[in-house]
Amino acid sequence: MSAPMVEADADVVVVGMGCAGAAAALEAARAGARVVALDRAAPGGSSAVSGGELYLGGGTALQQACGVDDDPDLMYAYLHEALGPHPDEDKLRLYCDGSVEHFEWFRGLGITFNPSLYDGVSWLPPTADGLMWLGENAWPFTGLARPVPRGHRPATDGFGGWLLMDRLTTAVREAGVDVHPDTRVTGLVQDDSGRVVGVRARRFGEDVTYRAHRGVVIATGGFADNAEMVADHAPVLIGHSVVSDGLDDGSGIRLGVAAGGTLRRMASTQVALSVVPALAVRGMLVDGLGQRFVNEDVYPGRFSQAAVRHRPGPWFTLVDERGWEDVPERERWGVQPAVVAETLAEVETELGLPPGSLEDTVARYNRDAAAGEDSLFHKDPRWLRPLEAPYAIVDATRGFDPEGTGSRGGTGVSGFTLGGLRTSVDGEVLDASGVPVPGLYAAGRATSGIHGEGYVSGTSLGDGTFFGRRAGRAAAGC
């Protein structure tokens, strides 16, 4: 059998062209390296279908334009708790200290941000405001650090991941990176000393080899689309829908392990419950026993984690007529009540909840609301008021569509993975002794980044690009 043909000879080979891979390729090229970037499909990956939020702060120009005063220490204090327990403190400190510069890097790509604040609660604001809250103004974080909004949104309506990747991909090509789509990497090439010196791949039906004189960067995404790996490492996601482009199969993680790398935080995940935050905050979230379990004004991912990981389902949003009408129809995400009733006893019967459970929960909530203080979960008084009949119940298992036939697969839950290859702050893939595997780097969701067990929107795109840049520079020898 003949040896695979050599497709390209480069200084740095980047595997995966989502946000992390594109950032790595761009910075390596800007550092003077000859770069080839490979992707099994087309550039963009899961990053291109994301909401596009970037979690940035520390005093960015956008924050200043919105009259917001921030600094890296405040940002670190919030993220340390919101991404915890046990975030990667070294990476997180670098990320917070470098956030202002990273924001300017995005602006240098031609990405703009409208200088206005969305002052509500939402997975994705229905406006083009450039700045949004991501749970910083909710308990318990209000007692840890002065609340500061840090969700930075590109100037486009709705999902903005496509815009980020469009600008990034354009910059990559303009920097002279040779981009090869439809190229699936099947293995890493190591020399006799164990140094990674290239990759093996399938391109247009042929086996090819790409040489890398300085380093290979893995940026292939997480493993939420790999049922076997999910069952082994992140079973909380079993049976639920996946937030991805369909190609987060863990292949890059396995490549890194085969070359001597190790893993970190493989059980860490983000889960999202199909709840409209604007409705929940005006009412309450209850579990399958009719009990409230969280302050509904937190970042939606946080109440989703609290529900899916710790409370019996199904999960419901209870809201009264005033709360329902306060939310414009276009901001209800297409949901419709599963039950509308004049009494809570009727709701309990319709949902099969224990008799009296919801009545007790609402009675306690209304007493607190009348007193102006949520004694159980400390919801901000801005959202606190007694609930009155008639009541509406939205069933999260129906998903974000009126008939419950949407992409959430009947559970109302979707998610993705946060764990992956263990890396240094410069993207070096580390072996079991904490020693870098020579010539091998990684970034993005193929790695364990700044996260512990928590998540905040914008930290995947932010973490991936920030440490992708560092990995690209390190691979280039800078």
Automatic annotation (TrEMBL):
<dbReference type="InterPro" id="IPR036188">
    <property type="entry name" value="FAD/NAD-bd_sf"/>
</dbReference>
<keyword id="KW-0560">Oxidoreductase</keyword>
<dbReference type="InterPro" id="IPR027477">
    <property type="entry name" value="Succ_DH/fumarate_Rdtase_cat_sf"/>
</dbReference>
<dbReference type="InterPro" id="IPR003953">
    <property type="entry name" value="FAD-dep_OxRdtase_2_FAD-bd"/>
</dbReference>
<dbReference type="GO" id="GO:0008202">
    <property type="term" value="P:steroid metabolic process"/>
</dbReference>
<dbReference type="InterPro" id="IPR050315">
    <property type="entry name" value="FAD-oxidoreductase_2"/>
</dbReference>
<protein>
    <submittedName>
        <fullName>3-oxo-5alpha-steroid 4-dehydrogenase</fullName>
        <ecNumber>1.3.99.5</ecNumber>
    </submittedName>
</protein>
<keyword id="KW-0274">FAD</keyword>
<dbReference type="GO" id="GO:0003865">
    <property type="term" value="F:3-oxo-5-alpha-steroid 4-dehydrogenase activity"/>
</dbReference>
<keyword id="KW-0285">Flavoprotein</keyword>
<feature type="domain" description="FAD-dependent oxidoreductase 2 FAD-binding">
    <location>
        <begin position="11"/>
        <end position="460"/>
    </location>
</feature>
<dbReference type="Pfam" id="PF00890">
    <property type="entry name" value="FAD_binding_2"/>
</dbReference>
